[in-house]
Amino acid sequence: MTTHPYDALMDITARPKAVFVRGAGSYLWDDSRKRYLDFVQGWAVNCLGHSPPAIADALGAQAKRLLTPSPAFYNEPSLELAQALVENSAFDQVFFANSGAEANEGAIKLARKYGSLHKGGAFEIVSFEGGFHGRTLATMSASGKKAFEPLFEPKVSGFKKAKLNDIASVEKLINDNTVAVMIEPIQGESGVWPASDQFLQELRVLTEAHGLLLIFDEIQTGMGRTGKLFHYEHTGIAPDIMTLGKGIGGGVPLAALLATERASCFAYGDQGGTFNGNPIMCAAGLAVLEEVKKPDFLKAVTETGLLLESELQKVSARHGLGGVRGRGLLLALDLKLPIAPGIVAQAFEAGVLLNAPQVDTLRFMPALNVTKGEIAEMIDCLDGILTKAGAARRVA
């Protein structure tokens, strides 16, 4: 194996020493030529798998035409992608960003600008315990992640935390300073905890009754992840603002802030960014959207998600574990024991990439075009690890 200069990178997370050099579909290869089946996919980023030809071709073609003219000018891919998103959603305007955190930061700013114009300076946003909206100071403040609470104080004020699926806890926090409610339809980082469709519908009724904006953070659930192009489509309602990231770029840094005409109130100079709407990234986004919006593609995501859910339920039943949570191809298995990190480590050694958002939870975020055979391969690996773990516990 090649010796790599690991120390040059800031040590901000525990990483195995393997260095990945190639990817194709559901598989990655490291510099020792070991192959890994990837059920993380960059945290739900690579919706079409690793290095899909559609994205590679779009990037190559656009790179030969135009890298960036600066955001002070229009470029064709950004105009085309914005129009395509509007035509396929409930929104009227789009602002492109480079990361989910940046899109969510923009949503917070847009809501506060709306409050200053239309609600007497209202600025508070109700978000949720267990939520995760990013790592800027404002998005960390909006998040309900316990590990964030002591970090980088003082935080940005103006965020109150309600309880997921508890409409009374939301209503109790609303006052004259409230301008919006911000929610992940499925809380990914806290362990894949879904907001019920009924709760999201109740939020829409409540926010409309109080003249508040409803913001859906679909960074993880958007772009077909739950079997619809956007998760809100499952509910029969639409928010005023939605953010996209991860899957929209299919592996390149692209995100988006979408808003209705009523909520779109930025003036010149309020929002911007050097690489926002970059033609290279937007060309990739167009390639992703063209594939994901196909009815047969979304139907396959639903069917494959049900298969994965069923197989995980069988594993749970065999090993006396907990339930399976989530929707489509964003699922979690409750292990009922703090053994998730050990399972992830053993799976890595066996050539399968899994994720443990909590010590008792495994999260599954495969490519949206994952095959039945690849699901079977992952399940066999997980089943084998759990069988050995169960035997070890019985001996102990």
From TrEMBL:
Localization in the cell: Cytoplasm
CDD domains: OAT_like
Keywords of this entry: Amino-acid biosynthesis, Aminotransferase, Arginine biosynthesis, Cytoplasm, Pyridoxal phosphate, Transferase
GO molecular-function terms, A-Z: identical protein binding; N2-acetyl-L-ornithine:2-oxoglutarate 5-aminotransferase activity; pyridoxal phosphate binding
Predominant place of localization: cytoplasm
UniProt xrefs under InterPro entries: AcOrn/SuccOrn_fam, Aminotrans_3, Aminotrans_3_PPA_site, Class-III_PLP-dep_AT, PyrdxlP-dep_Trfase, PyrdxlP-dep_Trfase_major, PyrdxlP-dep_Trfase_small
GO cellular component: cytoplasm
Gene3D superfamilies: Aspartate Aminotransferase, domain 1, Type I PLP-dependent aspartate aminotransferase-like (Major domain)
Catalytic activity from the UniProt record: N(2)-acetyl-L-ornithine + 2-oxoglutarate = N-acetyl-L-glutamate 5-semialdehyde + L-glutamate
Cofactors named for this entry: pyridoxal 5'-phosphate
Any GO BP: L-arginine biosynthetic process
E.C. number(s) listed in UniProt: 2.6.1.11
Pathway in which this enzyme or protein is active: Amino-acid biosynthesis; L-arginine biosynthesis; N(2)-acetyl-L-ornithine from L-glutamate: step 4/4
Modified-residue entries (N6-(pyridoxal phosphate)lysine), positions: K246
Positions that bind N(2)-acetyl-L-ornithine: R135
Binding site for pyridoxal 5'-phosphate: G100, A101, F132, D217, E218, I219, Q220, T274
Entry's cofactor comment: Binds 1 pyridoxal phosphate per subunit.
Main EC class the enzyme belongs to: transferase
One Pfam family of this chain: Aminotran_3
HAMAP family noted in UniProt: ArgD_aminotrans_3
Family: Belongs to the class-III pyridoxal-phosphate-dependent aminotransferase family. ArgD subfamily.
Miscellaneous comment as given in the Swiss-Prot or TrEMBL entry: May also have succinyldiaminopimelate aminotransferase activity, thus carrying out the corresponding step in lysine biosynthesis.
Subunit structure: Homodimer.
Protein name, as recorded: Acetylornithine aminotransferase
Species of the source: Bradyrhizobium forestalis
Gene this chain is encoded by: argD
